[in-house]
Amino acid sequence: MVATAATSSFFPVTPSPDSSDSKKERLGNGSINLGGIKSKTSSSGNLQVKANAQAPPKINGTKVVTPPAEVFKNEGGVSFHPPRTFINQLPDWSMLLAAITTVFLAAEKQWMMLDWKPKRPDMLIDPFGIGKIVQDGLVFRQNFSIRSYEIGADQTASIETVMNHLQETALNHVRSAGLLVDGFGSTPEMCKKNLIWVVTRMQVVVDRYPTWGNVVQVDTWVSASGKNCMRRDWLVRDSKTGEVLTRASSIWVMMNKVTRRLSKMPEEVRGEIEPYFMNSEPVVAEDGRKLVKLDDSSAEFVGKGLTPRWSDLDVNQHVNNVKYIGWILESAPLPILETHELSSMTLEYRRECGRDSVLQSLTAVSDNGTDEIECQHLLRLEDGSEVMRGRTQWRPKNAKISGNVGQIPADTA
C-alpha cells in the first residue's frame, strides 16, 4: 500500500472511460463533487468549474508555482482533463529538482561551516597561547608572533623585542609553576620577606633575527648558581624550521624591595624554587673577560640627558632592564648601525635607576682589523654612579652565521 501511495504521487491514476461516461450521464441541475472539482449550474444554464482552494506548495521557504493543468470542454460545455498519455504521466520534475537543489544547498552550507581549519601548516601554531611546561615540568615553552611594530629599519625584530620575549617567558614560567604571587616573579616566601629578583649579569648571542610574521619558540629553564644566585637560560628557535635564532644566559639575585639592598637567599625561598632547578650547563659559554670602565677621556661617543618615561618603569618601580639596552645603543655610532647588526652582548647591571634619574651613555669602538666590530659601553647617572657596563659585538649585515650552539638540554635540542 505504501508503494502504491508513493507511486501515485508521481504517476496519478487515470480514470477509466466507463467511470467518466457514468459521471457525465449523472450531471444535472444539482451540484456534484467530481474528483476534487466542485461544479454547479449557473442561472444562465452554463456549467462553471471551481477548484478546491489550496495554498501553493513551498520548498525551502520559496513558493513553487506549478503550471495549470490543461482543461478541455465537450459539446455540452462540461470541462474535462485530457486522457493520460506517457508524456503527461511523467512526474513534476520542477518540484523534484527544487528538492534536490535544497538538499545540495543545505549540505554545502554545512560543509562550509565545518571547513574552518587553516590550509597552511605554519598557521596551526597558536602564537597567542600563554605557553606550556615541558620536559618533566622543568622547561617552559612559549610561542611569539613577530608583529609589524616590533621590527626596525632592517625589517627584522629589534634586540629590544628579543629581550622582551625572554623576560615574558621568564614571568610566565614562574606563573605556570604556581609560584608567582606579587611583583616580577616573587614567590610566596619572597613576598613575606619583601624580596624581589634582580638581574646582575646577562649574555646574549643572536645568530639570526626573525622577521615580520615569523613565529618564534622560546624555551627557558632555571638552574642553581652559587649559594645565593639563580641562573636562567633561554633558547629561541624558528618554530617552523627549528633553527636556533638566539641563546641567552643570565644570573639573578635577591633584593629587598624596601631597603633596595641585595639579600641572601632564605632557606624557605630555596625550598620553593629548588624543585624546578635543572642540572645543565649554561646555554652560552661564559665570557670571562673583564668589562672596561669608560670615562670621559676613553669614551668616543657620549649621549646625555637620558631620562626614563613612566612607561619604562616595571611593577617594582624601577626601570625595566630591557630599557637599559636601548640606552647603551643610543651612543653607538650611526655608521655601525647602518652597516652592521648586533651579534652578541655581555651586560653587568650594577645599580637600579628610578623615574627621576638622568643618565649618560658612553661608547668606545675597538678596531680589531676584521669586519667584526666590538664596542665597550657604560651607562651612568649624571653624578658618575655606574648603572651598567656592557660589551657588544657587531657583524656585517647579511653575513653567514656559523658557530657552536653549546650544551642544550636534551628535550630542547
TrEMBL record:
Q: Does the keyword Transmembrane apply?
A: no
The superkingdom listed in its UniProt entry is Eukaryota
Domain (Acyl-ACP thioesterase-like C-terminal): residue spans on this chain: 300-395
Q: Which residue ranges are recorded for the region named Disordered?
A: 1-36
Instruction: Report the locations given in the UniProt record.
Output: Plastid, Chloroplast
Molecular functions per Gene Ontology: acyl carrier activity; fatty acyl-[ACP] hydrolase activity
What Gene Ontology cellular component terms go with this record?
chloroplast
Matching InterPro entries = Acyl-ACP-thioesterase_N (IPR021113), Acyl-ACP_TE_C (IPR049427), Acyl-ACP_thioesterase_NHD (IPR002864), FATA/B (IPR045023), HotDog_dom_sf (IPR029069)
Domain named Acyl-ACP-thioesterase N-terminal is located at 1-126
Q: Its biological function? A: Plays an essential role in chain termination during de novo fatty acid synthesis.
Q: What family is reported?
A: Belongs to the acyl-ACP thioesterase family.
Q: This protein is called what?
A: Acyl-[acyl-carrier-protein] hydrolase
Which species is this record about? Gossypium darwinii
